[in-house]
Specification:
Chain lengths: 936, 110
C-alpha cells in the first residue's frame, strides 16, 4: 500500500496547485513541494529492506486478459531512480517558485511537473513491462506539455512537437518490443522476464526485440541520430530543462537499458548497436557543445554527450561497466541539474543566455559563480569532484574492452577526445560568463539571485563535492544495491577511491585537462573556421523536411478526398460498403445450403410485382415529386403486407401507421421544396450510379438468398419459452421490447425525442419562402367536411389507442403502435381545424411530454432496481378490472407508457413544427409568424 | 418465396441506392426510405421464411416464427421515421437558407 501511495501521490498532488494558486504562489509551491517530500518520506524507510536485497511489491490485476497488472516493485535500481526523481523534484519545485515570472500560470506549471513526476516514479517502480510502457508514454506526454509551457512562443511549440514526435515514435517501438518480449517469455511480469534472459537471447526474434527496445531507449535518451529533439526542448522553462531534460526523463532511456540489462545485454549485437550509438553520441554531443553560444544549448549538447557515455558503458555488457554507468548517472544528474539552474539564475538576472553578451559576472554574482565553477568542474571531471570518479571508471572500462573486438583502441581514444572536448566547453562556460570582460552591456543590471533560488543549486553542488571526496560513505551502498538489481545478482566488489595511483585512466584525465585547456585557447580559431556546413545537413533539418513532406502529403490527400461534396461522400460510403461486403465472399466463396422456404402462391407473386413496380416507379418518376411520393407509398403498403404475410403483425401495424405519418411529413416538406427537379445528372453519371446500385442490389439479393438456404439456429427459443413466465406477456415481440431488450427501447425513445427536439431547433426562426408557391392551395384552411368528420373521430381513435396499448403485452399492439395511432388522430385535428385552434385545446406542450416519457421509462427501470432486481427487469401481477375482466398488470405497462408518451409527443412536435412553417407562409394574417406553435 | 423475397430486397436496395446517389435532397430522402424498406425486410427475413404463426403464445401452438428480428425491426421502423423526419427538416432548412436543394448546398458550376 505504501508503494502504491508513492506512485499515486504525485498524480493526486497534481490536482492541488491549480486549486491553491488563488491563495498565492508560495502556497501553491509549498503544496507542490510537499508531494515529493511526502513520497520520499514513504520511500526512504524502505531502504533497509531494499539494501538487504528485499523486493517489496504491491500488485493488483488491471487487464489480466492481456497480462497487464498494476504492479509496483521496488528493487535497488528502482529505489535509486525513484529517489533521484523525487529528490531533485523537491529542489526543482523550490527553484521554479522564484524562476517563473508573475505572468506565468504557476498552478498549471506545478500540476504538469507533478504529473511528470508521477509518470517517472511509476516508470521506475513498475514491475510489469506493459505498465512500464504506459508510464513511458506518460513521461513523453508530460514532457510535451512542459516544453510547450510557454504556448505563445513558436520555438516552444516547435520544440514540443519535435520532442513528442521523436520520443512518441520511440515509445511505439518500445511497445512493440515489450509485446514481443511478452510473447517470447509468456509474461510481462518483470521477475519472470528478468529470469528469461537466455530464452530471449536464443529466440530468432531477438534482433527485432533488441532493435525495437533500443529505438525506444535511444530516442528517449537523445542518442545520435535521434538527439536533435533535445536542444529544441530547451525552449522549455529552465526548471523543466534541469529536471526533465538533464536529470531525469532523458535518463529513462538508459534506465531502460539498465532494467532490461539481464534480458538483452551481453550479445555481440547488443555490443555493436549500443556501443556504436553511445560512442557516436559521446563525440558528436561533446563536439557540438563547444560551439554553442546559448548557455542552455551548451548544456543540452553536453547532456547528449554524457548520455552517450552512460549508454556506451551499458553497451560493454559487463557488470563493472554497469556499475560505472549507474554511478555516472547519479553524478551527471547532480552536476547537470545544478548547472542548468545556475544558467537559469544567470538568465533570470541578466536577461540573456548568450555567451557572446554575457561577461564578467564574477564581480556582481560571485556566489553563483562559485556554484557554477564547482558544478562545471564536476562536469569536466576535475579530481575531488564527483564527475572525476565516474569518468575515471569510464576510462578504465574503455581500456578493459576484451581483445577480439576489432578497432578496440578506437574506444579509449574517442573517450580521451571526449574528455578534451568536455574540459573545453566547461572552461568556456565558466570563463566567458564570469571572467571575461568588465561585466557590463547586458540587458539587465546583474545582481545575485534570491536566497531560495540558490539553495537548490547549493544542495547539489555540496553533494557533488561530498561524493567526490567521500564516495564510499555516501553512494556505495546505493550503488551496490542498484547494481545488484541491474545485473541480476552478480556484482563485483565496488571500489571507489579518490586516488588510484598512477595508471592509464589518470593519464587520460591529465591529457583531457591539459588538452582541453589548450583547445579552449584556440577555440576562437575553430569557431571562425567552422562554417555553416554542419547546420545544413543537421538531423533536425532532415526531421523538419520529413515532417513537412508528410504534412503536405496529408493535406493533398485530404483535399482530394474531402471535397466538401456530400454527394461524393455518399458515393464513397456506398462503394466502401460494397467492398466490405464482397471481400468475405471472395475469400470464402458463396456457400449455399439446402433449406427451403414456403412455396410462393398467387397473391405473393402479385404483391411482389407491385412492390417491384413501385420501387422502379419511384426511380423513374423521381423528378415528378408528388407522383414519386404516391408511388413510394405503394411500396410501403406492400412492405406492410409482406410483414403481415410472414407472421409479423406488430411490424405490419407499425409500418402501416408510420407510413401514414411519413407521407404526411413528406407532403408537408414537399410544400417547400421544388416540385420539379432542376437539370438532371449527366448520362455518364447515371450509368455509373446505376451500375453501382445494381451491384449493391444484386449483392443484397445474393446474401438474402444464401442466408435463406442455410441451416437455421436462433437464440429465440429462450424468448419464446420465457416470455410468459418471466415477462408476463404472450406477445413475445412486445415482451422483448419492454423487458428482455428494454434497454434498447429506452435508448430508442431517447433518440426519437432528441430527433424531435432537433427538428424544432432546426426550424426555429425559419420562414418559408412565399415565392413560387408550388401547389394550388385550397383557400379554405379548415374544410367543413373534414372538420365535421375529424372531430367526432377523435374519441374513437383515442379509445382504440387505449385498447391497443393495453392489449399490447399479449396481443399485437403496444406503446409504439398506440402512440402513432394517437398522433395520427391528433394530427387529423390539426389538419381539419388549423394549428392554433387545436394547440389551444390540447393545452399541453409536447416538449415536456417527451421528457416525462423518457423519465417514466427510466423510473420504471430504477424502481425494479429498488426491489432488488436489475435495471429494467420488470415484474407483473394480475388485476381484475370491472367490465374488462382479469387484466395482467405488469410494470412493463409503465415502461410502455413512457414509450407511448415520448413517441406521441415527438411525432406531434415534428409534424406541427413543419405544418406551422407552411401555414405561416400561406396565411400570415391570422396568427403570429412563429415556427413553433407551442412557444407561448 | 425465398426467390421473391431476395429479389424484392435486391430491387429495393438497388432503387434506394440509386436515389441516394442523386444530387437533390428529395430523391435522397426517397432513396433512404426505399433502402430502409429493403433493409427491414432483410432483417426480418433473417428469421427465415418457413411459414409459421405470429410469435404470440397460444396454448398448443409451437410453430411461432422467430420474434427477435421482429423486435429489432420494430425499433428500426420507428427510428427510421425519426431519421426521415430529421432529414426532411434538414433538407428544408438547407433549401430555405441556401436557396437551392442540392445536397452539397450549392448548385454545381455550369
Amino acid at each position: 500500500m505504501t508503494l502504491l501511495l508513492i506512485v499515486l501521490l504525485p498524480f493526486l498532488g497534481a490536482l492541488i496547485p491549480p486549486l491553491l494558486i488563488r491563495r498565492g504562489r508560495t502556497v501553491a509551491a509549498l503544496a507542490a513541494g510537499a508531494v515529493p517530500v511526502a513520497a520520499l518520506a514513504l520511500l526512504i524507510p524502505l531502504w533497509p529492506t531494499v539494501r538487504d536485497g528485499g523486493v517489496p511489491r504491491w500488485r493488483i490485476p488491471w487487464l489480466p486478459q492481456i497480462g497487464l497488472e498494476f504492479d509496483i516493485r521496488l528493487d535497488g535500481l528502482a529505489f535509486l531512480f525513484a529517489a533521484l526523481v523525487l529528490g531533485i523534484g523537491v529542489l526543482i519545485v523550490v527553484y521554479a517558485r522564484y524562476y517563473l515570472s508573475e505572468r506565468d500560470p504557476m498552478g498549471r506549471f506545478y500540476a504538469l511537473l507533478l504529473l511528470f513526476m508521477g509518470a517517472m516514479t511509476g516508470l521506475a517502480l513498475s514491475g510489469n513491462l506493459l505498465l512500464s510502457a504506459i508510464f513511458w508514454e506518460l513521461t513523453s506526454l508530460s514532457s510535451f506539455l512542459l516544453i510547450g509551457y510557454w504556448t505563445h512562443r513558436a520555438d516552444a511549440r516547435d520544440g514540443a512537437r519535435t520532442a513528442l514526435a521523436v520520443t512518441g515514435l520511440g515509445g511505439l517501438a518500445l511497445l512493440g518490443g515489450v509485446l514481443l518480449i511478452g510473447r517470447i517469455v509468456g509474461s510481462f511480469d518483470l521477475d519472470v522476464v528478468l529470469a528469461s534472459g537466455a530464452l530471449v537471447k536464443a529466440d530468432p526474434l531477438y534482433p527485432v526485440v533488441l532493435t525495437l527496445v533500443l529505438l525506444g531507449a535511444f530516442t528517449k535518451s537523445a542518442q545520435v541520430p535521434f538527439h536533435f529533439w533535445l536542444p529544441g526542448a530547451m525552449a522549455a522553462p529552465t526548471p523543466v530543462s534541469a529536471y526533465l531534460h538533464s536529470a531525469t526523463m532523458v535518463k529513462a532511456g538508459v534506465f531502460l537499458l539498465a532494467r532490461l540489462f539481464p534480458v538483452l545485454a551481453g550479445t555481440d549485437l547488443w555490443f555493436t548497436l549500443v556501443v556504436g550509438a553511445g560512442l557516436l553520441t559521446l563525440i558528436v554531443g561533446a563536439y557540438s557543445a563547444m560551439f554553442q553560444n546559448d548557455l542552455k544549448g551548451l548544456l543540452a549538447y553536453s547532456t547528449i554527450s554524457h548520455l552517450g557515455l552512460i549508454t556506451l558503458l551499458f553497451g560493454f555488457g559487463t557488470a563493472e561497466a554497469a556499475v560505472a554507468a549507474l554511478f555516472h548517472l547519479i553524478n551527471h544528474a547532480t552536476f547537470k541539474a545544478s548547472l542548468f539552474m545556475a544558467a537559469g539564475i544567470i538568465d533570470h538576472e541578466t536577461g540573456t543566455r548568450d555567451m557572446r553578451t554575457l561577461n564578467g559576472l564574477w564581480r556582481t554574482m560571485p556566489y553563483t559563480g562559485v556554484l557554477a565553477v564547482i558544478a562545471a568542474s564536476a562536469m569536466a571531471g576535475v579530481p575531488l569532484f564527483n564527475g572525476f570518479l565516474s569518468k575515471e571508471m569510464f576510462f578504465a572500462e574503455t581500456l578493459a574492452v576484451p581483445p577480439g573486438v576489432a578497432w578496440r583502441w578506437v574506444i579509449p581514444a574517442a573517450a580521451t577526445l571526449y574528455g578534451v572536448f568536455s574540459v573545453t566547453y566547461s572552461i568556456r562556460f565558466v570563463y566567458e560568463v564570469f571572467f571575461s570582460g568588465p561585466g557590463t552591456g547586458m540587458p539587465k543590471e546583474p545582481h545575485e539571485a534570491p536566497r531560495w533560488m540558490r539553495i537548490p543549486v547549493e544542495v547539489l553542488a555540496v553533494l557533488a563535492i561530498l561524493v567526490g571526496i567521500f564516495p564510499n560513505l555516501i553512494v556505495r551502498p546505493l550503488l551496490t544495491a542498484s547494481a545488484a538489481a541491474t545485473t541480476g545478482g552478480v556484482i563485483p566488489p565496488i571500489e571507489l577511491h579518490v586516488w588510484h595511483g598512477f595508471n592509464l585512466p589518470l593519464l587520460m584525465t591529465v591529457i583531457a585537462l591539459v588538452g582541453g585547456f589548450f583547445l579552449f585557447r584556440r577555440l576562437n580559431v575553430l569557431l571562425s573556421v567552422r562554417g555553416g556546413y554542419v547546420r545544413s545537413v543537421s538531423a533536425k533539418g532532415l526531421f523538419d523536411d520529413g515532417l513537412f513532406a508528410v504534412l503536405r502529403m496529408a493535406r493533398r490527400l485530404t483535399r482530394t478526398l474531402e471535397t466538401g461534396s456530400l454527394q461524393r461522400y455518399v458515393l464513397y460510403f456506398v462503394l466502401a460498403a460494397i467492398v466490405l461486403a464482397v471481400a468475405p465472399v471472395v475469400r470464402h466463396g458463396w456457400p449455399l445450403g439446402a433449406e427451403t422456404s414456403v412455396p410462393a402462391d398467387g397473391p405473393l407473386i402479385a404483391g411482389w410485382g407491385v412492390l417491384v413496380a413501385c420501387a422502379i416507379g419511384t426511380v423513374v418518376w423521381r423528378r415528378q415529386r408528388l407522383v414519386a411520393l404516391i408511388v413510394i407509398s405503394g411500396a410501403g403498403v406492400m412492405v406492410t403486407l409482406a410483414f403481415a404475410r410472414i407472421g409479423a403483425p406488430d411490424l405490419a401495424l407499425t409500418q402501416l401507421l408510420v407510413e401514414v405519418v411519413t407521407t404526411m411529413l413528406l407532403l408537408l416538406a414537399l410544400h417547400h421544396l421544388p416540385q420539379e427537379a432542376a437539370a438532371g445528372s449527366s448520362r455518364g453519371r447515371l450509368v455509373r450510379d446505376g451500375a453501382i446500385a445494381l451491384t449493391a442490389g444484386a449483392g443484397m439479393a445474393a446474401i438474402t438468398w444464401a442466408v435463406l438456404t442455410r441451416p437455421f439456429s436462433s437464440i429465440s427459443t429462450y424468448f419464446l419459452e420465457n416470455a410468459k413466465t418471466q415477462g408476463g406477456g404472450t406477445n413475445v415481440v412486445n415482451v422483448i421490447l419492454v423487458d428482455f431488450r428494454g434497454f434498447d427501447t429506452l435508448g430508442e425513445i431517447a433518440v426519437i425525442g432528441i430527433a424531435a427536439l432537433g427538428v424544432t431547433m432546426m426550424l426555429d426562426g425559419l420562414h418559408a419562402d412565399p415565392r413560387g408557391r408550388p401547389f394550388l392551395m385550397s383557400r379554405d384552411r379548415t374544410p367543413l367536411i373534414l372538420t365535421s368528420i375529424a372531430r367526432p373521430l377523435l374519441p374513437f381513435a383515442l379509445m382504440m389507442s387505449v385498447y391497443i396499448f393495453l392489449r399490447g403485452h399479449n396481443m399485437p399492439g403496444g406503446g409504439f403502435i398506440a402512440a402513432i395511432l394517437t398522433s395520427i388522430a391528433i394530427m387529423l385535428q390539426f389538419m381539419a381545424n388549423g394549428i392554433p385552434w387545436t394547440a389551444a385545446r390540447l393545452r399541453v406542450r409536447p416538449q415536456p411530454v417527451i421528457a416525462w416519457g423518457v423519465l417514466i421509462a427510466v423510473a420504471t427501470g430504477v424502481a425494479s432496481m429498488l426491489y432488488g432486481s436489475t435495471f429494467l427487469d420488470l415484474a407483473f401481477t394480475y388485476v381484475d378490472f370491472p367490465l374488462i375482466g382479469e387484466v395482467e398488470l405488469a410494470t412493463a405497462l409503465f415502461f410502455d407508457l413512457g414509450v407511448y408518451l415520448t413517441v406521441v409527443a415527438a411525432v406531434i412536435l415534428m409534424l406541427t413544427a413543419l405544418g406551422a412553417l407552411s401555414s405561416d407562409a400561406a396565411a400570415p394574417d391570422d396568427y403570429a409568424s412563429e415556427g413553433d406553435p407551442w412557444r407561448s | 418465396m425465398a426467390f421473391l423475397m431476395a429479389s424484392a430486397i435486391g430491387v429495393l436496395v438497388a432503387a434506394g441506392i440509386f436515389l441516394l446517389l442523386r444530387a437533390r435532397t428529395f430523391p435522397v430522402i426517397l432513396g433512404l426510405s426505399l433502402l430502409s424498406y429493403g433493409v427491414n425486410l432483410f432483417l426480418v427475413t433473417m428469421g427465415r421464411l418457413r411459414g409459421g404463426s405470429a410469435p404470440i403464445l397460444v396454448a398448443g401452438v409451437t410453430d411461432q416464427v422467430d420474434p427477435l428480428p421482429q423486435a429489432l425491426v420494430l425499433t428500426a421502423i420507428v427510428i427510421g421515421f425519426g431519421m426521415t423526419a430529421f432529414l426532411v427538416v434538414l433538407a428544408l432548412r438547407a433549401r430555405l437558407t441556401l436557396g437551392n436543394d442540392h445536397v452539397d448546398g450549392e448548385e454545381p458550376d455550369a
